[in-house]
Write a structure and sequence with these properties.
By secondary structure, the chain is an all-alpha fold. It has a domain at about 20-125. The protein is built from six helices and no strands. The chain has helices at about 1-15, 15-30, 55-70, 75-95, 110-120, 130-155. It starts with a helix and ends in an 8-residue tail after the last helix.
Length: about 160
Amino acid sequence: MAQELLVSLALGLYTFLPAYFANGAALAFGGGRPLDGGRLFRDGRPLLGSHKTVRGLLAGILVGLLTGLAQGAPLLGILMGLGAVLGDTAAAFVKRRLSMPPGAPLPVVDQFDFLLGAYLLSLPLLSLAPDSVVLVFIATPVFHIATNYASYLLRIKKVPW
């Protein structure tokens, strides 16, 4: 039973690699012109904020595509990459509505925004058993916390969350 769970988890993690890598690429290669162009929403707050950039969006999509190519599933890779950055962007929109500054933690949302976006966008092409999907969603917070802390130690992020 434990071995079957590990295999299901490994398969799920492998399948979602384009989303994980796209999410990291948007951070690592971001910067530059904000996606929202500095616009404010009708509540007077930034639409998305300065941390969501054109370069980050494009980097996430490209890395998702390249990961999918390496896996032999380029369309799934691009959908997961696009879904990951869109999910993260949607969370940024919500955070701005809550008056949270860019980079401020929003537990649970921060751990699942990119993954949920990738899952929803790639669902039509996803041929993954439900148990693998559930295991990926369970394991992701652990990986998310670890990679955020590693990014902080490497000075990619200014804060460890």
